[in-house]
Design goal:
The structure holds two protein chains of two kinds. Helix content of chain A is 32%, strand content 24%. By secondary structure, chain A is of the alpha/beta class. Chain A has a single domain, classed as P-loop containing nucleotide triphosphate hydrolases (Rossmann fold), CATH 3.40.50. Chain B folds into two domains: 6-89 and 180-322, Rossmann fold; 105-177, no CATH class. At the A-B interface, helix 6, helix 7, helix 8, helix 9 and helix 10 of A face helix 7, helix 8, helix 9, helix 10 and helix 11 of B.
Chain lengths: 323, 329
């Protein structure tokens, strides 16, 4: 049985306007996503900014109220669970954010930050919690003396380690990592990625790993989902996706990665423009529309649910982007 | 080392900041030159002095704390270090331009793109007629491939996407056809797809306008894509300098190799351990006189190696390394 299962998940936000602030349009940030995640597995999620990756992550850990669809965690439907009902569940699902400088309270010491999950869940005595904080710091490679310092006293990489320590404090089963290394230098980035890999092995964690750096995602993931304008357009095992991309958007993303080898410079097929607004997205295949593909029109009105093209390689079957 | 075909020569540049805790040397004896019409990359982690080097060249160091303490920066036969402010101002935005990492903070949020472009023109050409200002602005917007330029000129920065904003900033920087463009992490805040567009755009405009570029980045992938020569900085010093092919094929310094190894490669096995450089760049207050990479290299250094600055030597034609006997090979 999978740890997490989402079906046709939609997260729409009303766009308000006019004197009465009525909803005049819907921003379809996540628009019908189905995914499964097994225990100990990492599912990578890539796409450009504004394609709904973060919203999907937040919806999964129920920091948002999904508009439609189903989220099942450990076999339990949590799509409509109340805050009170979610609280015990939150032990098992945590999140790591992109910018540790913003996600750590600057007025709290590292000890306050790391004790808070235990306090919120009402676990342990003062002394036990002190001991656990020391253990957590050790686990993420920080010295015990870090506990009495404030977040600003640490470098970006160390701050991200504090964010990770907080996320693993309650021994969760699932961690949503939202661009955990995008703000870090390459050398520090690899330290943090190694730490995440070690913790996964040790604690049997499952990750939803969100990033726009494709080489990082490939390195961390068992399977990778490519997202465009609120929808998954391709889903495949990491190796397969990179060797055999089927959807034009995946190909474009792969093509844009700079190769760290000056002997392999090449002409690129550049993607023009940006991700269009998810308010009133085009009908049919959104990427075909952006590329002005002549065959885009035939995708309007088509059933664009992912199809399994080869074993465990799922692609959106639009005529404009998939051969 | 001076070379007639180079447009900018930085030699032995020392830049420091006066703080309550004393004088901090952020850039400590840095020398390089930018060949005419080529791209020089400066790479290194945050806190290595890349941006301070750039701000020294444009003389935009935070005042009154930032000071150039030694060395020379020769551009077009003039030493920028001793140039009077008035003359420097005439040079800046005309002959030397700069673009920054975060266009949202570099652009003025309460002025239209058109107004900001016009300002760049009028600062260096007061007598330019309004009709000509408009024509030049539209022409430049077309060059940076902003669709519907006449309409965009009347828009404010917040109305543009990240990639468009970066294009607008490039338009402002290049409107006076500078000879040298300094780009400080121009694509770090952007998506990979937009990054590829912006890098291609800079390369095209460089060819078209014949300018030289100094590209500051922490991404060796970007360096490999667009640079001709590379300077690797660590803790305020250059540890290695070479042509791009030579650097990627024969990196000599342990820091350069560490940076190269820590990039996740598309060919590597998923979920395998990455090679990482342990620790962090030392804080500026802890910069040692000798080999500064010592504590992260994982190798024992003698007291002498920690206390005397390693010589910067040319190990092969045009390939220079900070020659610490432990860290350089």
């Amino acid at each position: 049985m999978s740890l997490l299962k989402i079906q046709n998940l939609k997260q729409h936000f009303p766009v308000r306007g006019g004197v009465l602030m009525r909803a005049v349009a819907q921003c379809k940030a996540v628009d019908g996503v189905s995914l499964e995640l097994g225990t100990g597995e990492t599912l990578g999620l890539v796409g450009e900014s504004g394609c709904g990756k973060t919203t999907l992550g937040k919806a999964i850990v129920r920091l948002l109220k999904p508009t439609e669809g189903l989220i099942e965690f450990q076999g339990e439907d949590i799509t409509r669970s109340s805050m009170g009902k979610m609280r015990p569940m939150r032990r098992h699902m945590q999140m790591i954010f992109q910018d540790p400088a913003e996600s750590l309270n600057p007025r709290h010491t590292v000890r306050d930050i790391l004790e808070e999950p235990f306090v919120v869940q009402g676990i342990g005595t003062r002394n036990e919690r002190r001991k656990w904080v020391a253990e957590l710091l050790d686990k993420v490679g920080l010295s015990a003396s870090a506990a009495d310092r404030f977040p600003f006293e640490f470098s970006g990489g160390q701050r991200q380690r504090i964010g990770i320590a907080r996320a693993i404090a309650l021994k969760p089963k699932l961690i949503v990592c939202d661009e955990p290394v995008s703000a870090l230098d390459v050398s520090v980035q690899s330290q943090v990625l190694n730490l995440l890999l070690d913790l996964q092995r040790e604690m049997g964690l499952s990750y939803l790993f969100i990033a726009h750096g494709l080489s990082v995602v490939k390195h961390m993931s068992d399977r990778v989902a490519v997202m465009y304008l609120g929808k998954i357009v391709e889903l495949a095992p990491a190796e397969e996706l990179y060797q055999n991309p089927r959807h034009a958007y995946t190909k474009a993303l792969l093509d844009a990665i700079p190769t760290p080898d000056p002997t392999k410079r090449r002409e690129r097929r550049l993607l023009s423009g940006d991700v269009p607004s998810p308010i009133n997205p085009p009908a049919g295949c959104a990427f075909g529309h952006r590329m002005k593909n002549p065959r885009w029109e035939s995708s309007v009105g088509m059933d664009l649910t992912l199809k399994e093209m080869s074993p465990s390689h799922w692609v959106q079957p639009c005529p404009c982007c998939t051969e | 080392m001076s070379n007639a075909s180079s447009i900018l020569q930085v030699s032995n540049l020392v830049t420091g900041f006066d703080t309550d805790a004393g004088r901090m040397i952020a850039v400590d004896g840095v020398s390089f030159e930018v060949p005419q019409g080529k791209t020089l990359g400066i790479v290194g982690e945050s806190g290595c002095g890349k941006s301070v080097t750039a701000f020294s060249i444009t003389r935009l160091l935070p005042q009154p704390h930032g000071k150039i303490l030694g060395g020379s920066i020769t551009f077009g036969g003039k030493d920028l270090v001793t140039l009077p402010h008035e003359e420097m101002r005439k040079l800046r935005g005309k002959n030397i331009s700069m673009i920054f990492q975060e266009p949202m903070t570099a652009l003025n949020p309460v002025q239209t793109i058109g107004k900001q472009l016009a300002e760049a023109i009028l600062l260096h050409d007061e007598k330019c007629k309004p009709s000509e200002v408009l024509a030049r602005s539209i022409d430049m917007m077309k060059k940076v491939r902003i669709p519907a330029p006449d309409q965009r000129l009347n828009e404010y920065p917040h109305q543009l996407s990240g990639g468009m904003r970066q294009r607008a900033m490039i338009a402002m920087a290049l409107i006076n056809s500078p000879k040298l463009l300094i780009a400080d992490e121009p694509t770090t805040a952007l998506d990979v797809t937009v990054q590829a567009q912006i890098l291609a755009l800079i390369a095209d405009l460089q060819k078209e306008m014949g300018m030289s570029v100094v590209l500051i980045t922490h991404d060796l992938g970007v360096i490999a894509e667009v640079c001709d020569e590379v300077v690797v900085m660590y803790a305020g010093r250059i540890v290695e300098r070479a042509r791009v092919h030579e650097l990627f094929a024969n990196a000599r310094h342990a820091y350069t190799r560490g940076l190269l190894d820590s990039i996740p490669k598309l060919e590597s096995r998923p979920k395998s351990k990455l090679k990482a450089i342990p620790g962090n760049v030392p804080s500026i207050a802890d910069f040692k006189p000798g080999c500064r990479f010592a504590e992260r290299s994982g190798k024992e250094h003698t007291a002498e190696q920690l206390n005397t600055r390693p010589a910067f030597t040319e190990v092969s034609s045009n390939h220079w390394v900070e020659n610490c006997p432990i860290c350089a090979s």
